[in-house]
Amino acid sequence: MSQAGTINGSGGGGGPTVPTEFTTDFQADQVTPVGHAIPAANNLNVLGGSGISTYVDPNNGDNLFIKVKNSVTDTGTTVNLQTITLSTIDCSVEGTYFFTTQLAAYSSAGAGDSLGGVLYTTVMSKGGVLTVIDDTDSIAHRSANFSGPGVTIDYEIVASGTDAVLNVTGEVGFTINWGAFTVYIFRGV
C-alpha cells in the first residue's frame, strides 16, 4: 500500500513557535520595572538610547549586539618589563576626544586604574595629526607588589599618527593579565 499523500498526524507541533512578547528589565521611564515589547507584523525594532547602539553582524544575520557607543574592551598580557599596546582607537575625524579608561591588572598581585586623557585631531585636509592636550590623568590602586620605589607597572594614552593608543608596561618577575574598558566623547566640526 502506497503512503503517498498520507498525512501523519502524530508527529508534533508543525514548526517553531514565534515569540509574541519580549520582556525588558524596565519600561522607557527607567523607573518602572518590567516592560513588554510586542512585535508588529513579526518585526521588533531594537533601538539604542543615550550612549547605547545596537547592530547586527553580519547584516540580515541572527546575531544582535547591544554596545556602549564609542567604546572598546581589550585584554592582553605582559611578561616582565614588556610594553604592549592594549587598545588602539581611530581618531582620524577632526575634533576633540576625551577618553576614560578603566584598567585591571592581575598576577598574584592586583592593580586597577581610572585613566583619563584629552586628544585632538587637526584639519585632515592638511595631513591631520592627533595631539595629546595634557598628560594622562589617573587614579591608581595597587597592591604592595605593584607599588613603591622601582616599580615599573605603568599605563598611558599616547598619540600615534591619528590613533589614540593605550600602552601598558609590566613588572620584573610578573606575567600580568590586563583588561581595559575605554569610552570616549567626541566633538568635532
Short description:
The protein is mainly β. It is built from no helices and 13 strands.
Give short descriptive properties of this protein:
189 residues; mainly beta; Immunoglobulin-like; 2 domains; six-stranded antiparallel β-sheet; 0% helix
Question: Portion of residues in helices?
Answer: under 10%
* Number of spatially distinct domains: 2
Q: Give the rounded overall mean pLDDT.
A: 83
The count of helical stretches stands at 0
Oligomer: single chain
What is the architecture of the largest domain at the second tier of CATH?
A: Sandwich
Largest sheet composition: 6 strands, antiparallel
Pick out the low-confidence regions. Answer: none
| Global geometry | extended
| Beginning-to-end CA distance, first to last residue | 79 Å
Question: In CATH's first tier, which class of the largest domain applies?
Answer: Mainly Beta
> H/E element string?
EEEEEEEEEEEEE
The assigned structural class equals: mainly beta
What portion of the residues fall into strands of 2 or more residues? over 45%
Radius of gyration: 25 Å
Under CATH, the topology of the largest domain is which? Immunoglobulin-like
**Any idea what the CATH superfamily of the largest domain is called?**
4-oxalocrotonate tautomerase-like
Number of strands: 13
Would you kindly provide a written description of the structure presented here, covering whatever features stand out?
The protein is mainly β and 189 residues long. It has two domains: 22-68, no CATH class; 71-188, 4-oxalocrotonate tautomerase-like (Immunoglobulin-like, Sandwich). Helix content is 0%, strand content 52%. It is built from no helices and 13 strands. Strands 5, 7, 8, 9, 10 and 13 form a six-stranded antiparallel β-sheet that branches. A three-stranded antiparallel β-sheet has the order 6-12-11, with no helix packed on it. A two-stranded antiparallel ribbon has the order 1-2. A hairpin with an 8-residue loop joins strand 8 and strand 9. The protein starts with 21 loop residues before the first strand and ends with a strand.
